[in-house]
Amino acid sequence: MVTEYGQGYGRGRARSAGTGHRLPAALRAPVEARSLRAFGYLLLGLPVSLVLFAWTVATVTLGAGLLVTFLGIPVLAAALAGCRGFAVLERARARALLGLDVAGPEPLRVRRPGAAAWMGAVLKSGASWRNALYALAHFPWAVFSFSVAVSFWTTGWALLTYPLWFWVFPAYAGQGGLQLYGDAHHSVHLDNPFEIAVTALVGLVITLVTPWLVRALTTVDGLLVRGLLGPSPLSARVVELESDRGTVADTAAADLRRIARDLHDGAQARLAGLAVDLGLAKEKLREDPRTAARLVEEAHGEVKTALRELRDLARGIHPAVLTDRGLDAALSAVASRCTVPVTVSVDLPSRPAPAVEGIAYFTVCELLRDVGRRSGARSASVDVWRSGDRLLLQVSDDGAGGADLSGGSGPAGLAGRLDAVDGVLVVDSPAGGPTRVVAEIPWRI
Fold this sequence. Notes:
Elements: H1 2-18, H2 25-28, H3 33-65, H4 72-98, H5 115-124, H6 126-160, H7 162-165, H8 168-173, E1 178-182, E2 187-190, H9 193-229, H10 233-284, H11 289-317, H12 320-325, H13 327-337, E3 342-347, H14 354-375, E4 380-387, E5 390-397, H15 411-419, E6 424-428, E7 435-442
Parallel strand pairs: 3-4
Antiparallel strand pairs: 1-2, 4-5, 5-7, 6-7
Helix pairs in contact: 3-4, 3-6, 3-9, 4-5, 4-6, 4-9, 6-9, 10-11, 13-14
């Protein structure tokens, strides 16, 4: 459901963006800024790649040859450091001309100050060696793409404009037109109006095809930049997991503080008062039985209240009905306590993992809490279903809308906690309502 919403939005935006052009994309392509930037990228690619290739081959081979001496390691470190510098230039060039925004790799992890530690960090960095591999792999591709792009671009425009300059041949070359074929006995020149028109038409076809060919060539460049000059998937995943670990730790600490506060302000305070009341009842048991009985009765009421608070607190940690009967019964119980009428629909072929059930339960609890407190809704609904390897939750209401993911609490805080388990939260809440919040959680964690 979330995917369909996103795709529909993309289609609508594409239609509105294309209405401002009177010419079809095929006819605009040769003179579009995007095509010209892509062609400029390929033109610059050859000299830049030549310099980078020469630097890498010369310094790496020199460093490898000097490894038998103490000079080999510094030379190799300098070679890889130069490759990292060229990588910064290449990412900037791809960003400026191709609109390709590739993040830099993970920074060097220098354990201690000093030149030796820095050289060790450069040599141990996988990003450094990927940058050197880019220098070696990109050079032959740059030669090929430069040759193809320049050949097609110049040939297409030269043939397309042939009617404007074919007069050069009879005026200065002593022949009727551009020679198509020639040997010692026979030659063919493009010199009559029909041949000139056909030549221009062939040039038009090549000119129209060239921008798409150039874009296809730059697509390969983009893959090389992403794969070899950006962060490695493993390191990116490590950074993501470190961030998620911090989010989980913060959430767990906040939950522990909430539990401690609820115990201190609720059950603990009532039990302390209960102990005082029972002590007074014990003292007055013989002297004033009626007062003692009244104190015992009040203590009995406090015990019931304390038990109810402890039960609610335990339900907030992990409800027994969720463990015993699953999401359907647990969410129905939550819906019955909501201040807004809520309908619950759970369509699952089987029960997910206990951890996933807990995440889904508390996600719906927090969303329904927001519905009851802030939305002003008259009714709400909860739908739970499975799609592939994802558990999907949808909470809808007919309230005032205006919910968003900005700020650090409410939907924003919930989105951060779901992201820590590779989940996704999507909020669709226009001003005036209605509001629809969809959460996706992995079926297995």
